[in-house]
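User: Fold this; tokens only.

Assistant: Input:
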Amino acid sequence: MHARSVAAAAIDGVTGELVQAKLTPSHEHVRSWIQNLSGPVAVAYEAGPTGFGLSRSLNAAGIRCEVVAPSKLQRPTGDRVKTDAKDAVHLARLLRLDEFTAVAVPTIEQESARDLVRAREDARGDLMRARHRLSKLLLRQGFVYSGGQAWTGIHDQWLRQTGRELGSAATRMTFESDYDAVLSVKARRDRLDDAIAQMAADCEFTPVVHRLGCLRGVGTLTGFALAVEVGDWDRFTGKTIGSFVGLVPSEHSSGVSRVQGSITKTGNTHLRRLLVESAWHHRPVHRVGKTMRDRWELAGPAARARGDEGNRRLHHRWNTMRARHKRHTVANVAIARELAGWCWSLAVLEE
């Protein structure tokens, strides 16, 4: 599947006859070609930038369509020639043998919520880069803020005052451009935060968000992002969700030797970052404050009990890691992997 072309291949399940074609990306064109094939038809294509529109169109027409995970495809190691036509035939053969890993196709509403969450993630990254550009500009001019935490109201006053003290007119113009970029991106991020908070308060993900909020470090934004990115929690278990977010150790073992390395960092990068950030909240002593009690009020008794158990367990794990003199970054990744399992247990909890 490409933006301007589609390479198609079909294999007859009885005779083994191979049919190939070059199609346009129009859903109607693809559907009409498939409907002209004889017998019941099943379709598979690789997940990519074209999205899930074709899958929804074919399933609505009564044609089974699977979206295949490209990273899970089995490919011959000795095959050094890769073309769209060969890939289409390879997909058709894997579909015929049922040897593929399908991805979960979200609904239109779920995909819309996911786009909103990812837009907020992009705004966060843009804000970080804009702030870095501004602070490094001042650093090159010899201005370093030492009045406490950066990017607060007091820091903002210092920035405006410092901007007026810059000597060169060109430097002042550069400062104004970078400072305006920081304010603009921050306003965009805040608007997206408000939109996410409103959607999280009344949508199909609201019960899951409320249950996930029983864990420390999982507020509305994080809980909603976890809910929409995972979608169907039932396809995982407490042990397998860690591999979905790339928080399990890599392994190269053969025979009696077993060698484990750093985490795989495969799967959803956004979820992995959220879980690692949330895991740091379990390092301090576990105390139930007003914020946590307010979140508990939105969840049921079973979720509150489960969340409190998870909070105590994860803090105990932090203490265990510290007693073993583990590096804090390594310990935090281990806590994040276990936190993913606790999130799964709350998401699938039935009250």
